[in-house]
Amino acid sequence: MSPSSNPVAVNAPPAGKPLVTPRQLTLVFVVALALAWGFLPEFTVSVLSNIGLYALVAAGLVMLTGVGGMTSFGQAAFVGMGAYATAWICTSPTAAAWLGGAVSPALLPWAGLALGLVFTFALAWALGAVTLKLQGHYLPLCTIAWGLSLYYLFGNMEFLGGQTGITGVPPLVVAGVSLATPRALGVVIWAVLLLALWAMHNLLDSREGRAIRALKGGRLMAESMGVDTARHRIKLFVLAALLAAVSGWLYAHLQRFVNPTPFNLNIGIELLFMAVVGGAGHLWGAVVGAALITLLKEKLQDVLPALLGTSGNFEVIVFGLLMLFVLQRFADGLWPTLSRLASRWVRNDARKETAAASKTAPAQPVQLAQRTLPASGELLLEASDVSKRFGGLVANNAISMTLKAGEIHALIGPNGAGKSTFFNMISGVDDPTSGVVRLSGQSMATKPSRAFAALGLGRTFQHVRLLGQRSVVENVALGAHLRARRGWLAAMLRLDRAEEAALMAEARRQIERCGLGAHADTPAASLSLGQQRVVEIARALAGQPSVLLLDEPAAGLRHLEKRALSVLLSQLRAEGLGILVVEHDMEFVMNLADRITVLEFGTVIATGTPAEVQANPRVLEAYLGGADDELLEDAR
Ligand code: ADP
Ligand code: MG
Q1: Would you say the CB of residue 626 lies under 6 angstroms from ligand 1?
Q2: Contact of 71 with 218, CB cutoff 8 Å
């Protein structure tokens, strides 16, 4: 019902109907900036250009830190690489001899850009390969270390002019027009920034973007969906470094000289401030943060010395306090607060966009990779004498079991019996201390869990692992990661839309099938825990698995939901899937499973049909002392 057709609402002021979409707002901002650009005072233009340069680096940090969960203090060093590369090529006689006059002077800055990008790419990849494996605080510490090293390197290299740096960097020349003034170059800076924001926005809204978002939650979930997390982390690191290098290149041609000072660790910290203060996970937050801190620095440098009577780097202290305040009050930076304030006027149409993407048929429909399901009764998964020790504790003791196509096999046992550990062994999360796991006939020793995923193993987790802030449909689409191919570049350039539509359609199909159709566009975290478990099942199904591992899928479900889950699992069994389920609800297990394996203290104490297991004296004994006497009641 529209507000006007509601008799009560006739005299009420028009309900707060949002006026614009974020896209329109961005357009208004860009057009206003473009129109005003020619008339703004020289000083403002220069400040805006600096903001653009900072925002470019900060946007890379938003991707790296805010989205990917990796903190870097050393980004200023990559800015320096971009700046020094072009300054050196444009001014050094060695470089001139090197190029042998093959490059005309007007093209030298472009050679500088190429050199800067190549160098940064190589260095970032190498640094990333070494440092990104580090966990916890070690990564940030490492970025400080190489941030400092590069800074000192710039200052100590004779051919880079030492502390004095390099002067006489020529202006950029584009199509015969010299961009010597900030007003002219500023246009390029903002064009590059907007282009980069567009490309990264596209990247995040894609298959690879979902993989990138999954990095933050740790390796386990992402790898189980088939994402090569190490590779994605390095690529993200390189992307952020390349953006920094482009910023450095533009900076060198704006300032027309370079020296080591602006590539100091201080600036690296400031850049991180910008990304975090603006809104760690939001690309436009980088622009807000860059603007805020640049303007603040400008003001503080005027005000603080007058206030304190001395000059010094007091703004660093004030920044620190500001950062504390913002992180206290606005945990996710300022952008979410700003967008909430603006939500009266700005309609959030992101959901409609994904809905549209999945509903409008693409010009050339794309088929996702299909798996031919195994014939019923075929052996899918085989564990032989799998043991796992944690120090002195034997969590799994020579467990052997099989899973066939078209059966539901339940794994039960008291808490701490080793069920989750066994799941980790047969899904590649952890390697058995001894024993062999075979999936579809292949020995899986030392293979990562994404190799299990590639062979058709889908799983859920005992402790739900979803991207809470993302919609259910995005979460489920992540499960289909391996069924699509498009990479980063295609996503950035929006060449992946047909495939993306197919992924979204598949995700919605699985959500419908699992009975969550009404929640497809809600953030996963706002669902009940039971429903989140079902989302995990839908996500596993999106990968079109032949083996499904479910760790306590019925926990937290209401009675009717459990019944629906039973129906779904029976249906999947009929389709030929092999399902291994860990579950505490005995009624659920006894009615559903074809075979049951009982674990106690890491050892199999019984295997058989539900009736056989219920009659087994060892099983009854195992359950007698425990909190789980449901089995006993069932057995009576
Ligand atoms: P279940 O899922 O059956 O409740 P788990 O497989 O989680 O049991 O745990 C089995 C035993 O192994 C428990 O005693 C647990 O404390 C121990 N355990 C599990 N994971 C680890 C680990 N990473 N390090 C040390 N001990 C562990
Ligand atoms: Mg468990």
Answers
A1: no
A2: no
Determine the residue type at 620.
L
Any ligand 1 atom below 6 A from CB of 418: yes
142 lines ligand 1 (CB under 6 A): no
* Nearest ligand, CA 411: 1
d(CA 274, CA 634): 61
Q: Which pair of tokens denotes residue 137?
A: 């605080």
Q: What is the pTM of this model?
A: 0.89
Which atom number of ligand 1 is nearest to the Cα of residue 390? 25
Q: How far apart are CA 590 and CA 76, in angstroms?
A: 61
pLDDT for res 332:
76
The one-letter amino acid at 607: T
Residue for token pair 């293979």:
447
CB 345 near ligand 1, within 6 Å:
no
User: Best of 386, 387, 393 to mutate for ligand 1, by most ligand atoms within 8 A of CB?
Assistant: 393
Distance (angstroms) between ligand 2 centre and the Cα of 461 equals: 9
**What was the pLDDT predicted at 341?**
83
DSSP state at residue 445: T
Q: What pLDDT shows up at residue 407?
A: 95
Q: Is 396 in the pocket of ligand 1 (CB under 6 A)?
A: no
Q: Of all protein residues, whose CA lies closest to atom 13 belonging to ligand 1?
A: 416
| 584 C-alpha to ligand 1 centroid (Å) | 16
Query: What single-letter amino acid sits at 409?
Result: H
Residue 434 in contact with ligand 1 by CB distance below 6 A: no
Tokens found for residue 27: 């357009």
| pLDDT score of 95 | 85
List the structure tokens of 249: 């290149």
Helix (H, G, I), strand (E, B) or coil at 534: helix
Give the pairing type, strands 393-404 and 379-390. antiparallel
Apex CA 80: angle with CA 322 and CA 65, to 5°? 45
Closest atom of ligand 1 relative to the 417 alpha carbon: 3
pLDDT along the chain (636 residues), means of 10: 38 53 86 92 94 97 92 94 95 85 84 96 93 80 91 90 91 88 93 96 95 89 94 96 97 94 90 85 90 86 76 73 76 79 69 50 71 86 95 94 95 92 93 94 91 95 92 96 94 94 95 94 93 95 95 90 92 94 90 94 93 88 58 46
For ligand 1, atom 26, name the residue with the nearest CA. 390
- CA-nearest of 237, 88, 220, 236 to 154 is 88
Q: Which pLDDT value is given to residue 348?
A: 63
Q: Provide φ and ψ at 486, rounded to 5°.
A: -60, 140
Main-chain dihedrals φ then ψ at residue 14, nearest 5 degrees: -50, 130
Judged by DSSP in three states, 380 sits in strand
The whole-number pLDDT of residue 273 equals 87
| End-to-end CA, the chain | 56
pLDDT of the residue at 148: 93
Backbone angles phi, psi at 169, to 5 degrees: -70, 130
Which atom from ligand 1 is nearest to the alpha carbon of 602? 10
